[in-house]
Amino acid sequence: MISLQQLHYCYKSSKPVLSNISLRLEPGKIYGLLGKNGVGKTTLMQIIAGLLFPQKGTVQVNERTPSKREPAFLQDVFLLPEAFTVPNLTIAQYKRLYAPFYAHFDENAFEQHLKDFSLPNKGSLRDFSHGQQKKILISFALATKAKVILMDEPTNGLDIPSKRQFRKIIAGAFLDNQTYIISTHQVKDLDMLIDDVIVMDDTQVIFNQPIAHITERMLFKQVLNLSEEAPQHILYSEGSIKGHVVALANTTGIPSRMDVEFFFNTLMANKPAVLQLFHTSNN
Amino acid sequence: MQFSFTRFKYLMAYQWAQYSKRYMYSLLAITIASIGFQYIYAKLGTLQSQVQVGIYITGLVLIGLFFTSTLFQPYASSKNNMQAYMLPASALEKLSVGVVYSMILFPIVGSIIFFLTNKLMVYISFHYMHRWTITMDPQYYKWGILWYTVAASGMTVFSVIFKRNAFLLYIIFCGLLYFSGLTINDSIGTYIMEKNANPPRHYEGNPALLELKPNGNNAAFWSAGYAVYNHDYKEYVGARLVVLPTKQQNMFYYAALLLCPFLWLITLTKIREKAA
């Protein structure tokens, strides 16, 4: 369980990056943390990981305070940063040296993830490409079985087949006692993977809903002409080869298929209407 | 503050795998520098005890500081610090491993290397270059390890504070400290003189007006001494007579040793409190 209460953070002598953020993230869920560049996604993840200390508010991760960086906390939280450097070690050495720090590390799972990513299980980490290094670190992160796994732009630098493989491996590795938070601005990479969507904008979390709620309240469909739909129900539309893709208020009561990227674009383009829709529905 | 011997063991292995090459290169550098400089001085016929002390302490301190700076640098570097901070071990465990490598293993092995090369070069100087010389006085190993430990402890503080050029900045800092020490040398010498009052006077059988006066030339403040000053010729006569009384030397020794845990504590606090 991750609990953030009225969190406030700003870097030295600059405007706030996060202000008044309150969130409660449950185990057994994969959260997609979405937002434009520079809205504070990475900062939020680093606060959860205990790497940054908020100026105001409280953070609790598995009933521990991250800023204390106790070994028991660090064993249960794995952060995969967007930018990283790998040590001058072979994969086998990396596993031998790092794995003992994680009480629940699963060697077989690590080997399997490497295999699924079509990576060899030997060779020096520095001899691999950046994308391959990232896949090795993802495999390691998942094999730690840490209760909280934070991934910052994990699909950056991955080729298209690897992105598909990434979704498959994440879905297969996820355990009920775990919480995954995946931050990305490449929203399409999270399709069919996440349980909840968290959207950040302008230093705040502006949206936090399960996918099921979104698809109950919003409808995403393809239409030939926009006139096919009642204008008051259209929240957002984009032209496509086959006409238009539209996001509508779901008045049918039948859940629709979610397109995360299109939902994100809808929210960014028509924030008040979308938020109002969920506000009204919650009431 | 948590400390687990099992995690400490894992960290030792982790640190060794990461830095064993640098460790070996640093020891190799000590070997080369030690042999090289001793050979040059032996060739010049000036491989005296003080020169050997200089080569030993300078080599150990400079190379050791560089090695120490690389050990603790991940805690300051913005690229690597996340991985260093996220490694599941307490700050005390992480610091302890660095201290063991940098301040116990490195100076001991470095001193053994100097001891062996010193024996070898003195032997070569004596038997093959026919220059009379003796090996370094063993008491200087104590001083070498002491000053190295103090300097390396300070280096740990600088390496966790400064993201870049910690080694260079620290060398500049130490240089400033040393030269400011020289400037106050005379004052300390004067103080010692006052405590050991010895006004200018004509000594029996010597027509010159002589005085025991502070002589801080080429000496750091901790080795302030005084020499005989000839008032008639306005110059010192002979070398410095006194470095420091043994009691005061020991006082500096223990004060310097006490400084180390204090510097480690600052490093530990920085590692614990520092955000990425």
Summarize the structure.
Chain B: The chain crosses the membrane at residues 23-41, 53-75, 95-116, 145-162, 167-184, 251-271. The complex is a heterodimer of chains A (283) and B (276). Chain A is α/β, with parallel strands linked by helices and 283 residues long.
Topology at a glance:
The complex is a heterodimer of chains A (283) and B (276).
Chain A: E1 2-10, E2 16-25, E3 29-35, H1 41-48, E4 56-61, H2 71-75, E5 77-80, H3 91-98, H4 107-116, H5 130-143, E6 148-152, H6 160-173, E7 179-184, E8 196-201, E9 204-210, H7 211-217, E10 218-223, E11 234-240, E12 243-249, H8 260-269, H9 271-282
Parallel strand pairs in A: 3-7, 3-8, 5-6, 6-7
Antiparallel strand pairs in A: 1-2, 1-4, 8-9, 10-12, 11-12
Helix pairs in contact in A: 4-5, 8-9
Chain B: H1 5-44, H2 49-72, H3 81-86, H4 91-127, H5 139-161, H6 166-183, H7 185-195, E1 201-202, E2 209-215, E3 225-230, E4 235-242, H8 246-273
Helix pairs in contact in B: 1-2, 1-4, 2-4, 2-5, 4-5, 4-8, 5-6, 5-8
GO molecular function (chain A): ATP binding; ATP hydrolysis activity
Pfam families (chain A): ABC_tran (PF00005)
Protein name (chain A): ABC-2 type transport system ATP-binding protein
Description:
The complex is a heterodimer of chains A (283) and B (276). A six-stranded mixed sheet of chain A has the order 5-6-7-3-8-9, with helices on both faces. In chain A, strands 2-1-4 form a three-stranded antiparallel sheet, with helices on one face. In chain A, helix 4 packs antiparallel against helix 5 and helix 8 crosses helix 9. Chain A is α/β, with parallel strands linked by helices. The model of chain A has no long low-confidence stretch (mean pLDDT 90). Chain A is globular and about 60 Å long. Chain A folds into two domains: 201 residues, Rossmann fold (3-Layer(aba) Sandwich), CATH 3.40.50; 69 residues, no CATH class. Chain A contains nine helices and twelve strands. Chain B is built from eight helices and four strands, in the order H-H-H-H-H-H-H-E-E-E-E-H. In chain B, helix 5 packs across helix 6. Chain B is α+β, with helices and mostly antiparallel strands. Chain B has two domains: 188 residues, no CATH class; 60 residues, no CATH class. Chain B has a four-stranded antiparallel sheet. The longest helix of chain B is centred in the N-terminal third of the chain and has 40 residues. In chain B, strand 1 and strand 2 form a beta hairpin. About 3% of the residues of chain B have low confidence. At the A-B interface, helix 2, strand 5 and helix 3 of A face helix 1 and helix 3 of B.
